[in-house]
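pasting for ref. prot 1 ->
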Amino acid sequence: MANGRTPSEHTVFDQVSAEYDQLPVEFFGPVGERLVALAGIRPGDRVLDIGCGRGAVTFPAARAAGTTGSVLGVDLSPRMVEATRAKAAELGLHRTRTMVMDGQKPTLPAGTFDAVVGGMSVHMVADLPTAYRAYRDLLRPEGRLALSAPATDLSPRPRVFGLETIADLSAAYATDSDVYPNGEAFGGQDRLQDDLRVCGFTDVTLTVERAFIRAGTARDVVRWTWTHGMRRLWERVPQHRHEHLESRIAAEITASHLDGGQVVLPVPVLYATAARPAA
């Protein structure tokens, strides 16, 4: 999901928009549904989805808000926005809109939304406190904020998407970044909790739950790693190493993460919820 990033980063999401969350790999959808449940979205709610991507949060939020509610999904990637708009129309979600917009500084009227949600997106914005204050201002009194991000997995060895091979790859080629997986999402749970409170939120709750990447084959997962934000990591790897590293990833999956012939990779996910105080 492209959100609050540099132009080169959201260009990557334009490049992957056709395949993003469209391969036979299940992950973003269930995580999005869980986020919507934790946000407590109800019929009639007006919802803003930050970094909407291909609708992993937008569509379950629209179903929860029902025909009396509405959802606006924003993303920096025009192609993501176009694809999600078309899918919403195909699904008959006529009260769902999408718009190209910077998720760090949404230019929308204050007090407009009952819920602001951001699935696997907000932890990558450049200035998190600025974003949190913007979301607080966009919420009505007692409105809810709900965010998700990958949780750092360091035991027994660092893993990314449940795999040591990808953690090693990230350590070798993405050492200039302090964003997950080279640092904790949101700067760590303590900082997230403090930042949300300083920015005017109450009832801050953080939980880490185990989600799963599910796929038919190891090669499906390898291909999937090229179709979201990890593509930027792949583009830093010398091309002559791609085939070898892809084979290593597939071999690790095959050796340790098959269940009944299907790939099942456990991935910890951090969920954060908070509320704007009552007027």
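and prot 2 ->
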Amino acid sequence: MTTGSRVPPSTHTIAGMAFLLVVIAGLVASGFSVYRWLHDAQQLPVQQIAFLGEQQHIDTARLEALVRQSQQGSFFALDVNEVYRLLEAQPWVYRASVRKQWPNKLTVFIVEQQAVAQWNDDLLLNPYGETFSGGHVERLPRLYGPSGSEKTALQGYNAMQTILTGAALPIHELFLSERFAWQITLQNQVRLNLGRQEFIDRLQRFVDVYPLLKQDERAVDYVDLRYDTGLAVGWSGNEKRSENV
């Protein structure tokens, strides 16, 4: 035998390689067909979207329509993270969790926003001082203040309302100025000017003296509490006067 000569492949080897190539091609074609089938919404559609959790202000039919519009593929093609982001961007949705359930169900758990106050007439505040869009809600206190003061205003409201609850004097409106001076209007329309400092102590002073003010035949219009001691009272009606008490 001459050195360096090459042995031609046998017929069996060529046939085996050809068979292997045919098998690989078949697997690729089958995999592609399965991929297309899994992503075909007609073959594996999301048939049910179940919304769990207590909802008073959320329209789940609207949310389902949004999800189906944004995710028009099959059950396997549905992007859970995208659905999550879509839902949490909706008014009144505080938190959302999304989970696929074989073979064709999507389960969504919703935590609804809790509105505790109106903010500047166009937004709502939740208990954490975060704003959200939710329209107008009746019987909520109205809080007003500069942008970025939401948490401060809500904390002040909660502290003041705690003092006023014992006197059955709920707050109707609260104003926090650019200089962080406080003014509130009670449900009985009495206005209280509390200033910037020691507003809790000043409010307590009003609560202590209010029973005496109610004994007057005239209705109280406003009370100015921006004094180290005492306060000034404005009376409603044709005759108004201010006096230290």
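The two ends are 128 Å apart (CA to CA).
The first strand starts at residue 48 and ends at 52.
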